[in-house]
């Protein structure tokens, strides 16, 4: 059985002080719950402090929101995989739709970032998902297949098994408009089927696929109980420590 993975993508929110106070409450609310894997993904400025605070917390891991594919050099404003590793970052989001739409990321750059992450033993969380116009034009499968093939080109089956995929329909992000459990399941079953053709059925069976887009405490159970939904990438609702703990706990209940 795939262990579910719930991640808090804070996006451009949380100062260092806010992150500290989030963790105080969240770690207490979570207790020793470890049936699902939990990842907190702060902005770069809060990574070091959150990393320090998680030193003695076994059941919460650290993630980053982005990285550059080069090892070092004249890339003003960018952060390398080694810089993240030094802070005990385990996961890194690549290809989030906000980065694709607002900052010009393409499947080709996502591919280079995922490669740089894996080479530094960071696990990429590779985001894919269609826009509303693409859904309305019946292009969901075509778009997902193109994003998967482009973003995951050149990886071996073993490498793919290290990754997490996140299906985030663009129309459901920050809009309060969640994909129905059936819509998400249908897309995610298709993603898994595509991984079986890119790699093999055993890899498709192992890889975890998160859903992201307006996940909240009151819709988490219905989404997380779908067979091909292996966790959530939570934006807005992950900023509240109690609400995020509720999402984690609702998911943990399904792991028994
Ligand atoms: P919301 O949960 O705010 O819709 O954001 C989803 C997301 O983009 C997570 O990466």
Keywords:
TIM Barrel, single chain, 12 helices, about 260 residues, eight-stranded parallel β-barrel, binds 1,3-dihydroxyacetonephosphate
- Architecture (CATH level 2) name: Alpha-Beta Barrel
Number of domains: 1
Strand residue percentage: 5-15%
> Termini distance?
11 Å
Please work out how many helical segments DSSP would assign: 12
Q: How do the helices and strands follow one another from N- to C-terminus?
A: EHEHEHEHHEHHHEHHEHEH
Q: Hetero groups bound?
A: 1,3-dihydroxyacetonephosphate
* Secondary structure tally: strands: 8
Low-confidence stretches: none
Averaged pLDDT, please? 97
* Biggest beta sheet summary: 8 strands, parallel, barrel
Radius of gyration over alpha carbons?
17 Å
- CATH topology type: TIM Barrel
**Which structural class best describes the helix and strand composition?**
alpha/beta
Q: Please give the CATH class.
A: Alpha Beta
CATH superfamily: Aldolase class I
- Apparent shape: globular
Helix content: 40-55%
Description:
Helix content is 46%, strand content 14%. It is built from 12 helices and 8 strands. An 8-stranded parallel barrel has the order 1-2-3-4-5-6-7-8, surrounded by 6 helices. It is globular and about 45 Å long. The model has no long low-confidence stretch (mean pLDDT 97). 1,3-dihydroxyacetonephosphate is lined by residues 9, 96, 168, 173-174, 212-215, 233-237. Residues 9, 96, 168, 173-174, 212-215, 233-237 line the site of 1,3-dihydroxyacetonephosphate.
